[in-house]
Write a structure and sequence with these properties.
The complex is a heterodimer of chains A (247) and B (367). Chain A has 247 residues and is an alpha/beta fold. Chain A contains nine helices and ten strands. Helices cover 37% and strands 26% of the residues of chain A. The radius of gyration of chain A is 18 Å and the shape is globular. The model of chain A has no long low-confidence stretch (mean pLDDT 89). Classes of the chains: A alpha/beta (247), B mainly alpha (367).
């Protein structure tokens, strides 16, 4: 349905809290279907930026468009077009797998028929059919995270925001998780992901590194590495975040 | 609307799945009524009486037998002088002493009249003054009948206790109990359930979703409206069946006022969840900040009129106080909305303010 427009566009997006500028006039674009890594040290302003892009926080100045809608003026349209998986676990542990799926599909206004269809589809993809009636609490962490990701996609959003989705997950599950991310991107969903794992950053189509509220580097992993003459994204990240640490 | 219904279903799942909490929420109210009804009695049952009668004559014996003739007074001691009374009071063997002067009967017909000393244990002032009143009634009636017999006419004030003639404490407690229970079930539970979503991070996901803040809040708390209403009904039924507590006014009006108070409490709970960071602080806040004032300042236990002036002013801010005036009015006095519209308007006004503040506090921006 979409022409090759941009999934996310930020123009001088700024947020101040009193005297403190958490996000300082950042500008960037994310193309449709791209896996975009959003990196930065703790306190660099990543979370504030994501909150503005998801409509949880209004910008102090500047603007941003997500899925073609202005986050400041049309937050409700933005909300319908995005999926969100928070840093903390975003499902209800005392509901069953099926209840969680039904709940979130319902919140996004899908019809009963559609909810049923997508629930079966999702259970099959995750091979969670036998566990459909179990409480989410009883699933291993890796499964829960994969389920949370699938639930964030259940309404077919144009852009999905993942805030450190793989924290505390074992390497094999992380790999499976990234396969799911690629699959979603291949199906046209733009994936906007933050992470602290630098090997994951290498998996992204493009990435940005935030330092002190500004975007200090942006580009494909190869471009970023070339720019900083670094062997890995981790090297580039350390150079940017702690310049005094490198001779 | 469909979204909201689905969301509300989820809250019912939460409530029904947590069996232990649900059992407490359903049984607590009935248990409380029974506890208050049986254990906490402030109505006067038995008054143990000591009589000091140094010179018995027909008059003193007649008056004593009057006291004995009531259900309430039990003559437990006969003394000849007052020296032993202090000790009897201190050992809690008597509640009241009746001290006749020497030649009581003879002085009765004299111009100045006779003296009679009634000493009451007022360790508990309310009970003490109630006992005093009972004793006064017995004495007054006796004097009056004697007066009629001897032909002289005297005007004797009569005391009548209205609306709760037997001073049944359970009648007085049930309306207060409803206020406290609704504060617990509605305010505490809505504070807990919302701050839990805040704590686990699911609230963030909900705020990012197309659900509006008012939908999130109502979806969370409306199930507790149903639960609170169920509690009101069970308390009223238990109070009626076990203790025969009356509902003299309109039951429909009473239930409607209860609904209003439930909404007030829910809004306060939401507000509490909004200003606190964790389930634990929300819980402590709801108990200390909402339940304690309801117990202490609503007039449920301590009459507002006997509080110091500044505290009476403070008590105006406690919604439970207004609810208590309303529910006691309907249940005990049998009055209708024409006498209670002012209290109802105040309660409704408070509710609107709390609702507005709660909605504001939860508006899409997470802090």
């Amino acid at each position: 349905m979409s022409t090759p427009r941009k999934a996310v566009v930020a123009r001088d997006l700024t947020r101040r809290f009193g005297d403190f500028t958490a996000v300082d006039a950042i500008s960037f674009e994310v193309a449709q279907g791209e896996v975009f890594g959003f990196l930065g040290a703790n306190g660099a302003g990543k979370t504030t930026a994501i909150r503005m892009l998801t409509g949880l926080l209004g910008p102090t100045s500047g603007s941003a468009e997500v899925a073609g809608h202005d986050v400041g003026r049309e937050p409700e349209l933005v909300k319908r077009a995005i999926g969100y998986m928070s840093q903390r676990f975003s499902l209800y542990e005392d509901l069953t797998v099926r209840e969680n799926i039904t709940l979130f599909a319902g919140i996004y206004g899908l019809s009963d028929l559609e909810i049923r269809r997508r629930t079966e589809d999702l259970l099959e993809r995750l091979q969670l059919g036998p566990q459909a009636g179990s409480l989410v609490r009883s699933l291993p962490l890796g499964w829960r995270q994969k389920l949370a990701f699938s639930v964030a996609l259940v309404h077919g959003p144009a852009v999905v925001f993942l805030d450190e989705p793989t924290g505390g997950v074992d390497p094999i599950t992380r790999r499976q998780f990234w396969e799911m991310i690629y699959q979603a991107a291949a199906e046209g969903t733009t994936v906007f992901v933050t992470t602290h794992y630098m090997d994951e950053a290498e998996y992204c189509d493009r990435l940005s590194i935030m330092v002190d509220g500004r975007i200090a580097a942006i580009g494909t992993p190869a471009e970023v590495k070339r720019e900083f003459d670094a062997e890995s994204i981790e090297d580039a990240f350390v150079q940017l975040v702690r310049p005094e640490a490198t001779p | 609307m469909r979204e909201l219904l689905g969301f509300m279903t989820k809250e019912f799942h939460h409530i029904l799945r947590d069996r232990r909490t649900l059992a407490i929420l359903l049984l607590l109210p009935v248990a409380q009524v029974l506890l208050f009804g049986f254990a906490v009695r402030t109505d006067i049952r038995e008054i143990r009486l000591a009589v000091v009668d140094p010179s018995p004559d027909t008059a003193t014996i007649d008056l004593q037998s009057r006291f004995q003739g009531t259900d309430l007074f039990h003559l437990v001691r006969h003394e000849t002088h007052t020296a032993g009374l202090q000790d009897l009071f201190q050992r809690r063997l008597i509640d009241m002493a009746l001290v006749f002067p020497v030649d009581f009967g003879a002085s009765l017909d004299r111009a100045g009249g006779a003296d009679l000393l009634v000493i009451t244990d007022t360790t508990d002032p309310n009970t003490g003054s109630a006992r005093q009143t009972y004793a006064r009634n017995v004495i007054d009636r006796w004097t009056r009948e004697r007066g009629q017999a001897s032909g002289s006419v005297r005007i004797v004030p009569q005391v009548r206790m209205d609306f709760n003639p037997t001073l049944e404490s359970v009648n007085l407690f049930v309306p207060g109990l409803i206020a406290v229970l609704l504060t617990v079930v509605s305010a505490l539970m809505s504070a807990i359930t919302l701050s839990r979503e805040k704590e686990t991070g699911t609230l963030e996901v909900l705020l990012v979703s197309p659900l509006r803040p008012w939908q999130i809040i109502s979806g969370k708390v409306l199930p507790y409206l149903a639960l609170g209403f169920l509690n009101v009904v069970s308390v009223l039924v238990a109070a009626r069946v076990v203790f025969g507590v009356p509902i003299r006014g309109s039951i429909v009006l009473l239930l409607a006022e209860c609904l209003l108070f439930i909404v007030t409490s829910l809004a306060l709970g939401v507000l509490m969840a909004a200003v606190t960071g964790s389930q634990r602080t929300a819980m402590i806040g709801a108990i200390m900040g909402l339940m304690m004032p309801t117990v202490l300042l609503s007039g449920m236990i301590f009459p507002v009129s006997s509080m110091p002036g500044w505290l009476q002013v403070v008590s105006h801010g406690v919604p439970g106080k207004w609810f208590l005036l309303i529910s006691r009015g309907i249940m005990l006095k049998g009055v209708g909305i024409e006498y209670l519209w002012r209290e109802t308007a105040i309660l409704a006004g408070m509710t609107l303010v709390f609702l507005g503040a709660a909605l504001r506090a939860f508006s899409p921006r997470l802090d």
